[in-house]
Design a protein that fits this description.
Blueprint lengths: L1 E5 L3 H12 L3 E5 L16 E2 L1 H6 L3 E4 L3 H9 L8 E4 L4 E4 L2 E4 L7 H8 L4 E4 L6 H6 L8 E6 L5 H11 L2 E4 L6 H16 L17
Parallel strand pairs: 1-2, 1-4, 2-3, 4-5, 5-8, 9-10
Antiparallel strand pairs: 6-7, 8-9
Amino acid sequence: MKIAVIGAGKVGQALGETWHGKSHVVTYGVRDPADAKYASLGTANLKTPGEAARSADVIVLATPWTTTEAACKQLDGLSGKIVIDCTNPLGMGPDGLQLVVGFDSSGGEMVARWCAGASVFKTFNQTGFENMKAAARMAPKATMFVAGDDQTKKPTVLQLVADIGFEAIDAGPLTSARFLEPLAMLWISQVMKGRMQPSRAFALTRAPA
């Protein structure tokens, strides 16, 4: 599958490298493909966001929230394509880092408006990049929820989540991003306050039969 990862920061590279190892064709969409800081990714794998999106089957938004709307506006040919939103709508408030979208909407739903015509899914936002690199080695498997409306394309997204090494769980429609973003904030706050190591993630357990 051809995957365009928009943003080549820690999350983008963690996902892209793992998918590449699973034989997916990964291209990174960055503002300046000639920037030396991306040299390790190989010039053949670097394009502008619009160029990367045009040739991809799946587009992954791994951008800071503050630049996500602008990134979406650079993407071409989104009609009928899958867009995976990994972002969390975070900003600084009086008590530190906090969600900046209320509970009657979500960042995922905003991305769906910015990426009109695409099938948007919220996932890969619920833990840190460290666990995206190590997901295949975690026991029990860490859980990664997927929210999105397009039931015909959701199995593809669930498989891409499983390819990273997570237990992929269907969280329902895109409006469920209203729950997944606060779940991410819980993980972030526990790590920032030193109550949890970044190498820990949420997992579902089952009672014995």
